[in-house]
Design a protein that fits this description.
two-stranded antiparallel ribbon; 20 helices; mainly alpha; 4 strands; globular
């Protein structure tokens, strides 16, 4: 069953590669044309023997689901790196793998010195990887399988971010289809709005895919600052926020439960965090004369706050030049991230809220031991199992960040704070990181450090357990 699912994913990747292959063919990009053709051929040769016969026993244990998800994402990234290697754009295997992982995990850190000069087909492959990675490739596989496979629930539980997993409708494959339909519709709407703003067709698709996935990949060196257009910045700001909201809320709106969506507590926490961060950074940047006018300070502050909190990583300003207080707030936003069940990375707002509420409850119990207290979200009491799992996840999450920070310190290329910023950025799939008063150039890291960062990106996107289970001997026992 594991081989069958991995074969399906490889076949899906071969189909996706037909898009940049077609672009290379039309534009006459012979080097990338050959690279995509070879990669597609390898994928077909690999996948066909695995999917030619369906396994009779298609049941799965939960731990099996975690392992398959981890293997699937690693496999995607290995094959996804091939066009970069074969085309010669990134001939170094580790660099190419890093670039591919960065795309699929929606971290979107590029090691390519000048992405503006690389072939358009390869740029489009990079945005496709982050777009499919934004919603989740296993979600897509579940959506297209003809039957409601018994293993599907374990696959989606392992891949879907957040403290708990739930279906929208009774059949899981229909839940997956609804989620992807919403994802595609919102992406299409964004493309149309960008076209209306005078953005070229190619840029509209690359920006829309980067925004929808909260990946934030841009082949422009200056990112969104290249356009210097308030309309484009406003549209992208709104949609970065939209794509960092739990997709279940959009389904509630579609079926007429608008009040239920608006009253969602995690959504209210997100609004409050963004309002506070934007206000604090706007005032600080204006007082410190970072910008000449208050409106200009607000314009850049709100964009960067939403960009970082949604884990998109788009830029309209070099925030490494901002006051330390503003940079510190952005660093905290990297930790918190977006909503559970969204395309955003980070610790997740719901976990952050539960953690704070649990702490308050513990303080109340210490003051009044006989008091009956409990953690509530959306007016419902949260079980002790969930609060314990959130606390456990937080412990592992912090431990991994500090462990990767320690390992990065073996590389003498960067200072203490730079390595910490990079560890936080990759673990939360943000992208940009700051250090030494400038934006970090990740290509300066050693091969060893890049492998650590690759692990961080995988662990951050898959939320620890799938990668941990991959190395557990018990995961392979019957």
């Amino acid at each position: 069953m594991t081989a069958y699912i991995l074969g399906l994913i490889a076949a899906l990747e071969a189909v996706l590669l037909l898009i940049p292959f077609g672009i290379a063919l039309v534009l006459g990009e012979t080097t990338t044309y050959s690279a995509f053709l070879i990669t597609i051929g390898v994928l077909v040769a690999y996948s066909v023997p695995l999917i030619i016969k369906r396994p009779k026993n298609r049941s799965y244990r939960a731990r099996g689901g975690f392992v398959v998800v981890a293997l699937a994402w690693i496999q995607l990234s290995i094959f996804g790196a091939m066009p970069f290697i074969i085309s010669g754009v990134l001939p170094n295997v580790i660099d190419a793998f890093f670039e591919s992982v960065s795309g699929f995990t929606t971290t979107s850190i590029s090691l390519i010195a000048n992405p503006e000069v690389i072939p358009s087909s390869l740029i489009f492959w990079q945005v496709i990887t982050q777009w499919i990675g934004g919603m989740g490739v296993l979600v897509f596989v579940v959506a297209i399988i003809p039957k409601n496979e018994p293993a599907a629930v374990h696959l989606l539980r392992a891949e879907t971010p957040g403290p708990q997993f739930g279906k929208l409708v009774s059949k899981l494959k229909f839940s997956a289809r609804i989620l992807y339909a919403i994802y595609i519709a919102l992406t299409a709407l964004l493309v149309i709005l960008l076209l209306c703003g005078g953005v070229s067709v190619f840029d509209s698709f690359t920006l829309a895919f980067g925004t929808a996935s909260t990946g934030g990949y841009s082949y422009k060196i200056a990112s969104i600052a290249t356009y210097n257009n308030l309309y484009i910045e406003s549209i992208i700001t709104v949609f970065m926020f939209i794509f960092s909201i739990n997709f279940n809320l959009f389904y509630f709106v579609l079926i007429g439960h608008f009040k239920q969506a608006i009253k969602n507590e995690e959504l209210r926490w997100m609004f409050l965090i963004i309002i506070f961060a934007t206000s604090a950074i706007t005032v600080t940047n204006f007082i410190e004369s970072t910008y000449d006018t208050f409106s200009e300070s607000f314009r850049h502050s709100i964009f960067q706050v939403v960009s970082i909190s949604s884990s998109s990583g788009f830029l309209t300003a070099d925030f490494s030049k901002w006051p330390v207080f503003s940079q510190t707030i952005l660093l905290f936003l990297m930790f918190i991230g977006g909503s559970a069940g969204s395309a955003a990375g980070g610790f997740k707002v719901s976990r952050f809220a539960i953690l704070i509420k649990t702490g308050i409850c513990d303080i109340k119990k210490s003051i009044s031991p006989r008091a009956i207290t409990g953690v509530k979200m959306d007016g419902k009491l949260i079980s002790n199992t969930i609060t314990a799992s959130v606390a456990s996840y937080f412990g592992m999450y912090i431990l991994i960040i500090f462990a990767s920070w320690l390992l990065l310190s073996l590389d003498s290329s960067f200072d203490l704070f730079s390595n910490f910023s990079v560890a936080v950025s990759t673990m939360n799939n943000i992208g940009p990181a700051i250090g030494n008063g400038q934006m970090i150039n990740f290509s300066d890291y050693s091969a060893f450090s890049k492998i650590i960062l690759v692990l961080n990106m995988f662990i951050g996107r898959l939320e620890i357990l799938p990668i941990v289970m991959l190395f557990s001997p018990k995961s392979y026992q019957r």
